[in-house]
Structures are given as C-alpha cells and as structure tokens.
Amino acid sequence: MTTSRRTFLGGSAAAVGGLIVADKLRFFTSAESTAGPPASAVIKGAETVYRTGHSNNCDGACGHLVHVVDGRVTMVGPAPWGTKTISGAPAPAFHPRICARGLSQISNTYSPDRIKYPYKRVGPRGSGKWQRISWDEATSLIAENFAAAQRK
Ligand code: SF4
Q1: How many other C-beta atoms can be found within 10 angstroms of the C-beta atom of residue 30?
Q2: Separation of CA 13 and ligand 1 centre (Å)
Q3: What separation in Å is there between the alpha carbon of 32 and the centre of ligand 1?
Q4: In the chain, % of residues over pLDDT 70
C-alpha cells in the first residue's frame, strides 16, 4: 500500500484536530451531570492566558499560550516568538509550533491515571504492590539511595 504525502498530512491533521476536540469536550463535560450542559454553562470566572512553555518533553522550544479559567487549564495553543532574543539580537527565523505531544499535556495534567503522590514498592519487582508514602519519606529514601550508590 502506498500513501501520498498529501494523504499522510491530511490524516495527521485530522488526528491532531481530533485530539484538540477531544480535549475541549473533556473539559467542557460537567462533573455532576453525564448529560453535559452547554459549554458556556460550565465556564465560570474570567479567563487568564499565560505565555509559557514546558520542559518535560523535547527541548521545550515551543511557546505556549495556556488558557486558565478558575484555576483550571482549559486550552493550550501556540504562542508566537518575539522578534528579538533576550540579548537583543534578532530572534531566529524558525517558529516552532506545538506538536501533538505538547498539546496532550492538558490531558496528562488532568488524567485520572496521573500519579500525584510518591509510592514505594513493597513487593517483588513487577508484583504491582505499592504503598503511598509522604514526600519527606520519598525524598529521604532517594537521598539515602543516592548516598549508597556513591559509597559503592
Ligand atoms: S510542543 Fe512538542 S515540539 Fe514543542 S517543545 Fe513541546 S514536545 Fe517539543
């Protein structure tokens, strides 16, 4: 089977569009009602847009415009680059735009599967047995294990 460049790009755009639409639907769904009120009914307060980025994926070069309503991110979009760098030199001519991975951070942030607390393995490796521990205990354990590795 052969796929033309145009077909591939069209499919990719549809996939990204689906991701964005899925994100919007996800955040416009009421937690109290499965019927789902109109979008305007669940948006409260003023929207604030932050110009920022992220550093947990590739090089973090893409600018992000993060829309927040009532402390919750509702949308992430691409931010344009300025014309000058911090040093005053002309900014590079490339304009990185957010990829699907960057856009999906909104889902990662609010995923019910996101691990928000430290856990310690309490069974054999691979047994799936974990115990929630405090941040103090977690950081102490990490420090102790680093020190033990250094001693070796
Ligand atoms: S949005 Fe994508 S390409 Fe841009 S910095 Fe994040 S991971 Fe990298």
Answers
A1: 12
A2: 16
A3: 34
A4: 66
Q: Are 81 and 97 in contact (CB under 8 A)?
A: no
Q: Which residues contact 129 (CB under 8 A, 6 or more apart)?
A: 121, 122, 123
CA 18 to chain centre: 16
pTM of model > 0.70: no
Nearest atom within ligand 1 for CA of residue 61: 5
What's the pLDDT score for residue 19? 40
* Spatial distance between the Cα atoms of 110 and 69, rounded to a whole number of angstroms: 14
CA atoms within 13 A on the CB side of 57: 14
pLDDT the model gives residue 137: 97
Domain boundaries, the chain: 5-110, 119-151
* pLDDT of residue 21 exceeding 90: no
Buried b (16+ CB within 10 A) or exposed e, 117-133: ebeeeeeeeeeeeeeee
**Any atom of ligand 1 within 6 Å of the Cβ of 77:** no
Question: Which amino acid makes up residue 69?
Answer: V
Helices (H), the chain: 5-27, 39-42, 100-103, 105-110, 135-151
Residue 131 in this model has a pLDDT that exceeds 80: yes
